[in-house]
Design brief:
By secondary structure, the protein is mostly helical. The protein has three helices and no strands.
């Protein structure tokens, strides 16, 4: 279980969103946290990918490898 304190304005916005989705505060916050964690995982994977050395191919070679130039 997790308890958080929110400013009144944020609580009001959260309630409006929950109501619009036919949901409740907990479900909306849970969904937001899951998305946040997934986004951070994707960001870390992207950073790792940028740091890995990669071989490159020219467009001509790639088209040949894919059998697009015949």
């Amino acid at each position: 279980m997790l308890a958080i304190r929110l400013e009144k304005e944020l609580e009001i916005e959260l309630d409006l969103l929950a109501r619009a989705k036919g949901s409740n505060r907990s479900a909306v916050v849970r969904e937001a946290i899951v998305r946040y964690l997934e986004d951070n995982e994707d960001l870390e994977l992207a950073r790792q990918s940028l740091n890995e050395p990669r071989a490159t191919k020219s467009l001509v070679d790639l088209r040949k490898d894919l059998g697009l130039d015949g």
